[in-house]
Protein backbone atom coordinates (compact mmCIF):
# COMPACT_ATOMS: atom_id res chain seq x y z
CA UNK A 1 0.00 0.00 0.00
CA UNK A 2 1.17 3.51 -0.83
CA UNK A 3 0.97 5.60 2.33
CA UNK A 4 -0.44 9.01 1.42
CA UNK A 5 -0.55 12.12 3.59
CA UNK A 6 -2.40 15.34 2.86
CA UNK A 7 -1.09 18.82 3.70
CA UNK A 8 -4.06 21.19 3.88
CA UNK A 9 -7.66 20.07 4.36
CA UNK A 10 -9.67 22.48 2.22
CA UNK A 11 -11.64 21.66 -0.92
CA UNK A 12 -8.66 20.01 -2.60
CA UNK A 13 -7.57 18.15 0.52
CA UNK A 14 -11.04 16.71 0.97
CA UNK A 15 -11.00 15.73 -2.71
CA UNK A 16 -7.72 13.86 -2.19
CA UNK A 17 -9.26 12.01 0.75
CA UNK A 18 -12.00 10.73 -1.58
CA UNK A 19 -9.46 9.94 -4.32
CA UNK A 20 -7.33 7.82 -1.99
CA UNK A 21 -10.43 5.81 -1.06
CA UNK A 22 -10.99 5.00 -4.75
CA UNK A 23 -7.48 3.61 -5.24
CA UNK A 24 -7.05 0.15 -3.76
CA UNK A 25 -3.26 0.42 -3.64
CA UNK A 26 -3.35 3.54 -1.41
CA UNK A 27 -4.15 4.33 2.19
CA UNK A 28 -4.40 7.66 3.98
CA UNK A 29 -1.79 7.89 6.72
CA UNK A 30 -2.27 11.42 8.09
CA UNK A 31 -3.53 14.93 7.48
CA UNK A 32 -1.23 17.87 8.22
CA UNK A 33 -2.86 21.19 9.00
CA UNK A 34 -2.03 24.74 10.10
CA UNK A 35 -5.32 24.92 11.99
CA UNK A 36 -5.78 23.52 15.51
CA UNK A 37 -5.99 19.78 14.90
CA UNK A 38 -9.25 19.48 16.84
CA UNK A 39 -10.97 21.76 14.32
CA UNK A 40 -10.30 19.40 11.39
CA UNK A 41 -12.90 16.66 11.03
CA UNK A 42 -11.89 14.26 8.23
CA UNK A 43 -14.24 11.57 6.98
CA UNK A 44 -11.47 8.99 7.36
CA UNK A 45 -10.35 8.02 10.90
CA UNK A 46 -6.73 9.12 10.50
CA UNK A 47 -4.43 11.25 12.66
CA UNK A 48 -4.70 15.01 12.17
CA UNK A 49 -1.32 16.55 12.89
CA UNK A 50 0.03 20.07 13.09
CA UNK A 51 2.14 20.78 10.03
CA UNK A 52 4.83 21.93 12.45
CA UNK A 53 5.13 18.30 13.60
CA UNK A 54 5.32 16.84 10.08
CA UNK A 55 8.95 15.78 10.51
CA UNK A 56 7.82 13.16 13.02
CA UNK A 57 6.00 11.40 10.17
CA UNK A 58 8.86 11.34 7.67
CA UNK A 59 9.26 7.54 7.89
CA UNK A 60 5.51 6.82 7.94
CA UNK A 61 4.51 8.53 4.67
CA UNK A 62 5.46 7.48 1.14
CA UNK A 63 4.07 10.53 -0.69
CA UNK A 64 2.77 13.83 0.68
CA UNK A 65 0.15 15.57 -1.48
CA UNK A 66 0.38 19.34 -0.99
CA UNK A 67 -3.10 20.86 -1.13
CA UNK A 68 -2.35 24.51 -0.34
CA UNK A 69 -2.98 27.42 -2.67
CA UNK A 70 -0.49 28.58 -5.26
CA UNK A 71 -0.65 32.26 -4.34
CA UNK A 72 0.97 32.09 -0.90
CA UNK A 73 0.91 28.52 0.50
CA UNK A 74 2.90 26.36 -1.89
CA UNK A 75 5.83 28.76 -2.44
CA UNK A 76 6.52 28.52 1.31
CA UNK A 77 5.27 25.05 2.25
CA UNK A 78 6.49 23.22 -0.83
CA UNK A 79 10.28 23.58 -0.43
CA UNK A 80 10.01 23.17 3.36
CA UNK A 81 8.06 19.90 3.21
CA UNK A 82 10.06 18.64 0.22
CA UNK A 83 13.00 18.31 2.59
CA UNK A 84 11.04 15.64 4.46
CA UNK A 85 8.82 13.83 1.95
CA UNK A 86 8.34 12.79 -1.65
CA UNK A 87 5.69 15.25 -2.82
CA UNK A 88 2.99 16.00 -5.39
CA UNK A 89 1.40 19.43 -5.80
CA UNK A 90 -0.85 21.42 -8.12
CA UNK A 91 1.04 24.74 -8.29
CA UNK A 92 -0.86 26.51 -11.06
CA UNK A 93 0.48 30.05 -11.40
CA UNK A 94 1.77 29.54 -14.94
CA UNK A 95 4.28 32.44 -15.05
CA UNK A 96 5.79 31.29 -11.75
CA UNK A 97 6.25 27.61 -12.57
CA UNK A 98 9.88 27.84 -13.68
CA UNK A 99 11.00 29.56 -10.47
CA UNK A 100 8.90 27.24 -8.30
CA UNK A 101 10.25 24.17 -10.11
CA UNK A 102 13.83 25.31 -9.52
CA UNK A 103 13.25 25.91 -5.81
CA UNK A 104 11.51 22.57 -5.36
CA UNK A 105 14.21 20.78 -7.34
CA UNK A 106 16.94 22.17 -5.10
CA UNK A 107 15.09 21.21 -1.91
CA UNK A 108 14.23 17.72 -3.12
CA UNK A 109 17.72 16.92 -4.39
CA UNK A 110 19.30 18.11 -1.17
CA UNK A 111 17.04 15.72 0.76
CA UNK A 112 17.24 12.83 -1.70
CA UNK A 113 13.49 13.09 -2.33
CA UNK A 114 11.33 13.13 -5.48
CA UNK A 115 8.50 15.56 -6.21
CA UNK A 116 6.08 16.16 -9.05
CA UNK A 117 5.05 19.81 -9.37
CA UNK A 118 2.17 21.51 -11.19
CA UNK A 119 -0.05 18.46 -11.59
CA UNK A 120 -3.79 18.77 -12.16
CA UNK A 121 -5.77 19.47 -15.30
CA UNK A 122 -4.04 22.73 -16.23
CA UNK A 123 -1.18 22.72 -15.70
CA UNK A 124 -1.15 18.95 -15.95
CA UNK A 125 -3.37 17.04 -18.36
CA UNK A 126 -3.80 20.06 -20.64
CA UNK A 127 -0.02 20.48 -20.64
CA UNK A 128 0.37 16.91 -21.89
CA UNK A 129 -2.21 17.48 -24.59
CA UNK A 130 -0.43 20.63 -25.77
CA UNK A 131 2.75 18.55 -25.98
CA UNK A 132 1.11 15.67 -27.87
CA UNK A 133 -0.70 17.99 -30.27
CA UNK A 134 2.33 20.11 -31.13
CA UNK A 135 4.58 17.06 -31.48
CA UNK A 136 2.19 15.36 -33.92
CA UNK A 137 1.22 18.56 -35.72
CA UNK A 138 4.37 20.74 -35.52
CA UNK A 139 3.10 23.34 -38.01
CA UNK A 140 0.09 24.90 -36.36
CA UNK A 141 -1.35 26.93 -33.51
CA UNK A 142 -2.46 25.85 -30.04
CA UNK A 143 -5.14 27.64 -28.03
CA UNK A 144 -6.36 26.87 -24.52
CA UNK A 145 -9.63 28.05 -23.01
CA UNK A 146 -10.71 27.67 -19.38
CA UNK A 147 -14.30 27.78 -18.18
CA UNK A 148 -17.00 28.54 -17.81
CA UNK A 149 -16.47 27.50 -14.24
CA UNK A 150 -14.82 27.99 -10.86
CA UNK A 151 -11.06 28.44 -10.67
CA UNK A 152 -9.63 27.07 -7.43
CA UNK A 153 -6.39 29.01 -7.72
CA UNK A 154 -8.05 32.33 -8.49
CA UNK A 155 -10.62 31.85 -5.73
CA UNK A 156 -7.81 31.15 -3.27
CA UNK A 157 -5.96 34.27 -4.45
CA UNK A 158 -9.10 36.34 -3.88
CA UNK A 159 -9.34 35.10 -0.31
CA UNK A 160 -5.80 36.41 0.35
CA UNK A 161 -6.76 40.00 -0.52
CA UNK A 162 -6.89 42.33 2.47
CA UNK A 163 -10.45 42.75 3.70
CA UNK A 164 -11.83 39.65 1.97
CA UNK A 165 -13.54 37.09 4.19
CA UNK A 166 -14.52 34.58 1.49
CA UNK A 167 -14.79 34.54 -2.29
CA UNK A 168 -15.32 32.51 -5.45
CA UNK A 169 -14.00 33.35 -8.91
CA UNK A 170 -15.45 32.21 -12.24
CA UNK A 171 -13.51 32.17 -15.49
CA UNK A 172 -15.53 32.75 -18.67
CA UNK A 173 -14.25 32.21 -22.22
CA UNK A 174 -14.97 35.09 -24.59
CA UNK A 175 -17.47 33.63 -27.06
CA UNK A 176 -16.13 35.50 -30.10
CA UNK A 177 -12.60 34.28 -29.38
CA UNK A 178 -13.78 30.66 -29.13
CA UNK A 179 -15.67 31.02 -32.41
CA UNK A 180 -12.58 32.38 -34.19
CA UNK A 181 -10.39 29.54 -32.94
CA UNK A 182 -12.86 26.78 -33.82
CA UNK A 183 -13.36 28.32 -37.25
CA UNK A 184 -9.64 27.89 -37.89
CA UNK A 185 -9.02 31.63 -38.20
CA UNK A 186 -5.79 31.37 -36.19
CA UNK A 187 -6.28 34.59 -34.20
CA UNK A 188 -3.38 35.93 -32.16
CA UNK A 189 -5.12 36.62 -28.88
CA UNK A 190 -3.78 37.35 -25.41
CA UNK A 191 -5.16 35.46 -22.41
CA UNK A 192 -7.05 38.61 -21.47
CA UNK A 193 -8.70 38.70 -24.88
CA UNK A 194 -9.78 35.08 -24.53
CA UNK A 195 -11.21 35.14 -21.00
CA UNK A 196 -13.00 37.33 -18.47
CA UNK A 197 -12.98 37.03 -14.69
CA UNK A 198 -16.04 37.28 -12.46
CA UNK A 199 -15.58 37.49 -8.70
CA UNK A 200 -18.14 37.06 -5.92
CA UNK A 201 -16.65 38.47 -2.73
CA UNK A 202 -17.71 38.57 0.92
CA UNK A 203 -15.98 41.37 2.82
CA UNK A 204 -14.94 41.39 6.44
CA UNK A 205 -16.77 43.82 8.69
CA UNK A 206 -15.52 47.34 8.10
CA UNK A 207 -13.46 46.45 5.03
CA UNK A 208 -13.05 49.04 2.27
CA UNK A 209 -14.88 47.70 -0.80
CA UNK A 210 -13.27 50.16 -3.23
CA UNK A 211 -9.79 49.24 -2.05
CA UNK A 212 -10.50 45.51 -2.24
CA UNK A 213 -11.79 45.91 -5.80
CA UNK A 214 -8.67 47.87 -6.83
CA UNK A 215 -6.37 45.29 -5.22
CA UNK A 216 -8.16 42.45 -7.00
CA UNK A 217 -8.03 44.11 -10.42
CA UNK A 218 -4.32 44.87 -10.05
CA UNK A 219 -3.24 41.41 -8.89
CA UNK A 220 -0.49 40.17 -11.25
CA UNK A 221 -0.84 36.72 -12.86
CA UNK A 222 -4.46 36.47 -11.69
CA UNK A 223 -6.59 39.51 -12.64
CA UNK A 224 -4.34 42.22 -14.09
CA UNK A 225 -4.86 42.31 -17.86
CA UNK A 226 -8.32 40.74 -17.72
CA UNK A 227 -11.75 42.31 -17.77
CA UNK A 228 -12.64 41.60 -14.16
CA UNK A 229 -16.04 42.11 -12.56
CA UNK A 230 -16.35 42.11 -8.77
CA UNK A 231 -19.68 41.53 -7.00
CA UNK A 232 -19.87 42.09 -3.25
CA UNK A 233 -22.35 39.70 -1.63
CA UNK A 234 -23.19 38.28 1.80
CA UNK A 235 -21.88 35.03 3.28
CA UNK A 236 -25.40 33.62 3.00
CA UNK A 237 -25.55 34.45 -0.72
CA UNK A 238 -22.14 32.85 -1.28
CA UNK A 239 -23.21 29.62 0.45
CA UNK A 240 -26.57 29.57 -1.29
CA UNK A 241 -25.60 30.52 -4.83
CA UNK A 242 -21.92 29.65 -5.25
CA UNK A 243 -21.31 26.34 -3.49
CA UNK A 244 -20.79 24.37 -6.72
CA UNK A 245 -17.28 23.74 -8.06
CA UNK A 246 -17.96 22.77 -11.67
CA UNK A 247 -15.61 23.83 -14.46
CA UNK A 248 -14.83 23.24 -18.12
CA UNK A 249 -12.05 23.84 -20.59
CA UNK A 250 -10.49 22.73 -23.84
CA UNK A 251 -7.21 22.67 -25.74
CA UNK A 252 -7.38 23.16 -29.49
CA UNK A 253 -4.72 22.86 -32.19
CA UNK A 254 -5.11 23.54 -35.87
CA UNK A 255 -2.47 23.14 -38.55
CA UNK A 256 -1.29 21.38 -41.69
CA UNK A 257 0.80 18.32 -42.40
CA UNK A 258 3.47 18.28 -45.08
CA UNK A 259 1.05 17.28 -47.82
CA UNK A 260 -0.96 20.46 -47.23
CA UNK A 261 -3.99 18.79 -45.64
CA UNK A 262 -5.63 20.63 -42.74
CA UNK A 263 -6.20 19.09 -39.31
CA UNK A 264 -7.86 20.10 -36.07
CA UNK A 265 -7.38 18.47 -32.68
CA UNK A 266 -9.42 19.18 -29.56
CA UNK A 267 -9.35 17.85 -25.99
CA UNK A 268 -12.23 18.86 -23.73
CA UNK A 269 -13.03 18.54 -20.04
CA UNK A 270 -16.40 19.07 -18.37
CA UNK A 271 -15.94 18.71 -14.63
CA UNK A 272 -18.70 18.37 -12.06
CA UNK A 273 -16.18 19.27 -9.34
CA UNK A 274 -12.90 20.99 -10.12
CA UNK A 275 -11.19 20.03 -6.81
CA UNK A 276 -12.43 16.43 -6.89
CA UNK A 277 -11.10 15.90 -10.41
CA UNK A 278 -7.81 17.64 -9.64
CA UNK A 279 -7.47 15.39 -6.61
CA UNK A 280 -7.86 12.34 -8.85
CA UNK A 281 -4.95 13.56 -10.98
CA UNK A 282 -2.82 14.16 -7.88
CA UNK A 283 -3.51 10.66 -6.57
CA UNK A 284 -2.42 9.07 -9.87
CA UNK A 285 0.71 11.23 -9.81
CA UNK A 286 1.44 10.11 -6.25
CA UNK A 287 1.51 6.51 -7.49
CA UNK A 288 4.03 7.44 -10.18
CA UNK A 289 6.20 9.38 -7.72
CA UNK A 290 6.21 6.44 -5.31
CA UNK A 291 7.34 4.08 -8.06
CA UNK A 292 9.98 6.42 -9.46
CA UNK A 293 11.34 7.22 -6.00
CA UNK A 294 11.68 3.49 -5.31
CA UNK A 295 13.93 3.33 -8.38
CA UNK A 296 16.17 6.03 -6.91
CA UNK A 297 14.70 9.13 -8.54
CA UNK A 298 15.33 12.48 -6.86
CA UNK A 299 14.58 16.12 -7.62
CA UNK A 300 11.58 17.79 -9.22
CA UNK A 301 9.70 16.59 -12.28
CA UNK A 302 6.46 17.35 -14.12
CA UNK A 303 3.97 15.18 -15.95
CA UNK A 304 6.18 15.56 -19.03
CA UNK A 305 8.74 13.36 -17.27
CA UNK A 306 6.45 10.52 -16.14
CA UNK A 307 6.01 7.33 -18.23
CA UNK A 308 2.21 7.12 -18.57
CA UNK A 309 2.01 3.51 -17.38
CA UNK A 310 3.34 4.54 -13.96
CA UNK A 311 0.19 6.60 -13.34
CA UNK A 312 -2.04 3.52 -13.55
CA UNK A 313 -2.63 0.86 -10.92
CA UNK A 314 -2.88 -1.71 -13.74
CA UNK A 315 0.07 -3.82 -14.85
CA UNK A 316 1.71 -3.42 -18.23
CA UNK A 317 0.01 -6.59 -19.45
CA UNK A 318 -3.39 -5.33 -18.33
CA UNK A 319 -2.86 -1.98 -20.00
CA UNK A 320 -1.84 -3.62 -23.28
CA UNK A 321 -4.86 -5.91 -23.19
CA UNK A 322 -7.49 -3.38 -22.17
CA UNK A 323 -6.35 0.00 -23.50
CA UNK A 324 -3.87 -0.47 -26.32
Indicate the topology.
Blueprint: E1 2-7, H1 11-22, E2 26-33, E3 48-50, E4 63-66, H2 74-82, E5 87-89, H3 97-111, E6 114-116, H4 125-136, E7 140-146, E8 149-150, H5 152-159, E9 164-173, H6 175-182, H7 191-194, E10 195-203, H8 209-217, E11 227-232, H9 235-241, E12 247-256, E13 262-271, H10 274-294, E14 299-301, H11 316-322
Parallel strand pairs: 1-2, 1-4, 2-3, 4-5, 5-6, 6-14, 10-11
Antiparallel strand pairs: 7-12, 8-9, 9-10, 12-13
H-E order: EHEEEHEHEHEEHEHHEHEHEEHEH
Strands of the widest sheet, in order across it, are 3-2-1-4-5-6-14
Q: Considering DSSP H and I runs of 4 or more, what fraction of the residues is helical?
A: 25-40%
Based on CA inertia axes, which overall geometry fits?
globular
What does the largest sheet look like?
Answer: 7 strands, parallel
Cα-to-Cα separation, first versus last residue? 27 Å
Structural class: alpha/beta
Tally of strands: 14
Radius of gyration: 20 Å
Q: Which parts are unreliable, with pLDDT below 50 for 5 consecutive residues or more?
A: none
And the CATH topology of the largest domain? Rossmann fold
What is the mean pLDDT? 96
Strand fraction band?
A: 25-35%
Write down the CATH class of the largest domain: Alpha Beta
Q: Provide the domain count.
A: 2
Number of DSSP helices? Answer: 11
